[in-house]
Amino acid sequence: SAGERVMERIWELDDTSPDYLDKTGISRSTIYAFLYNGTDLSSMRLAKICSLLGLSMDYVMGLKQEDN
What we know:
The chain is mostly helical.
């Protein structure tokens, strides 16, 4: 899922606490619901998270197998 792909990136960055995602301006409850409960995000919110983490939207959404 998209949340799992984002969490993989967070682990790669060696930061198991997504506190720095506060920089996106998205509430923690929304981010936690996305990461841990599979709640969908709007494309704008997902784009902000992807930009912060250096991920492509295609990869996070499962349209590509690997993030380049």
